[in-house]
């Protein structure tokens, strides 16, 4: 058998294997949070853009919400400024917020849009300020010390999502566009807020009643105490793993975001290793996936 024929047969087998998944997810909304290594490695950037275009081409409706923390850090450094963090949250002054808007709503957003369009998609970039897409309010953070004393922490212009104008996104989806959303929100007074991209993606998925929320990360997924990736988690199991310390540190807010989404009506959420080429396709079009699946009803999510 010639090499070309063997490759062609392999391609045909892959497409045949993917067919049931394409049929299952046809016309469904998939919200993808894009960040981490996948945003800084050129090969992974191209792989991600092609994946998103392919999803749209075969009848799914991808909605991208992106981060960009490292890019913000780089510009702040170039400007000779520092940005403190508290429990992973950036303290955002008014001048820092200007930089956040410039980077996330400008260079990063337009770069992602351009890359998707380069690969044949029809992406359009938005921030939460466009058409009041993401209504926000100031995030109130409370810390408790070892003695049990609580104190309020002012993070500046850091916000949380109050509501998402789903009509704007649905209009774009209906016009065959791929929305690419920067995680910036606005309050009733017109103040801009820097919002964690995971939280924005979760709320967008919730308001859209998305079929699936995908959080691309720099890790393989939720790990058990033996260092193995665990999947097929229910809210009850997640609570147990947090209580016994299996899930801890920076993974807690990420998995809480996924948990809130599925409790809010999203059929399933998955924490995906974004360092794997074609991670998005592997997660949707194969039974194995490349991350940790979380759902209220695992049988329904896997059917």
Molecular structure report:
The model has no long low-confidence stretch (mean pLDDT 87). Strand 1 (29-34), helix 2 and strand 2 form a beta-alpha-beta unit. The chain is globular and about 65 Å long. It has helices spanning 3-25, 42-57, 69-78, 94-118, 166-174, 197-208, 235-243, 251-263, 279-285, 298-302, and strands spanning 29-34, 61-66, 85-86, 89-90, 123-127, 134-138, 141-144, 150-153, 159-164, 178-182, 184-186, 192-194, 212-217, 268-273, 291-294. It has a single domain, classed as Carbamate kinase (3-Layer(aba) Sandwich), CATH 3.40.1160.10. By secondary structure, it is an alpha/beta fold. Helix 2 (42-57) crosses helix 4, helix 3 (69-78) packs across helix 4 and helix 6 (197-208) packs parallel to helix 8 (251-263). It has a seven-stranded mixed beta sheet, sandwiched between helices. The protein has a two-stranded antiparallel sheet with strand order 3-4. The protein is built from ten helices and 15 strands. 43% of the residues lie in helices and 22% in strands. One of its GO terms (cellular component) is cytoplasm. This is Acetylglutamate kinase. Catalyzes the ATP-dependent phosphorylation of N-acetyl-L-glutamate. It comes from Psychrobacter piechaudii. Belongs to the acetylglutamate kinase family. ArgB subfamily.
Helix-strand blueprint:
Elements: H1 3-25, E1 29-34, H2 42-57, E2 61-66, H3 69-78, E3 85-86, E4 89-90, H4 94-118, E5 123-127, E6 134-138, E7 141-144, E8 150-153, E9 159-164, H5 166-174, E10 178-182, E11 184-186, E12 192-194, H6 197-208, E13 212-217, H7 235-243, H8 251-263, E14 268-273, H9 279-285, E15 291-294, H10 298-302
Helix pairs in contact: 2-4, 3-4, 6-8
């Amino acid at each position: 058998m010639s090499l070309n024929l063997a490759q062609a047969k392999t391609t045909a087998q892959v497409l045949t294997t993917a067919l049931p998944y394409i049929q299952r997810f046809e016309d469904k909304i998939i919200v993808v949070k894009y960040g981490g290594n996948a945003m800084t490695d050129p090969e992974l950037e191209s792989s991600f853009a092609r994946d998103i275009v392919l999803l749209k081409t075969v009848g799914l409706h991808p909605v991208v919400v992106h981060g960009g923390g490292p890019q913000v850090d780089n510009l702040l450094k170039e400007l000779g400024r520092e940005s403190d963090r508290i429990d992973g949250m950036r303290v955002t002054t008014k001048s820092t917020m200007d930089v956040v808007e410039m980077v996330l709503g400008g260079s990063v957003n337009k770069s992602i849009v351009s890359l998707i369009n380069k690969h044949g998609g029809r992406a359009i970039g938005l921030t939460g300020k466009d058409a009041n897409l993401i209504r926000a309010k100031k995030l109130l953070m409370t810390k408790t010390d070892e003695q049990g004393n609580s104190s309020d922490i002012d993070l500046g212009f850091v916000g949380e999502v109050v509501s998402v104008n789903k009509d704007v996104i649905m209009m774009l989806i209906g016009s065959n566009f791929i929305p690419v959303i920067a995680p910036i929100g606005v309050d009733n007074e017109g103040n801009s807020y820097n919002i964690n991209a995971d939280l924005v993606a979760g709320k967008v998925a919730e308001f859209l009643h998305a079929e699936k929320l995908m959080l691309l990360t720099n890790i393989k997924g939720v790990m058990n105490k033996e260092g193995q990736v665990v999947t097929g988690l229910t809210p009850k199991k997640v609570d147990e793993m947090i209580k016994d310390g299996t899930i801890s540190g920076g993974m807690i807010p990420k998995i809480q975001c996924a948990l809130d989404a599925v409790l809010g009506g999203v059929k399933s959420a998955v924490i995906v290793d974004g360092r794997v080429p074609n991670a998005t396709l592997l997660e949707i079009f194969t039974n194995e996936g490349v991350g940790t699946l979380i759902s209220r009803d695992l049988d329904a999510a896997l059917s």
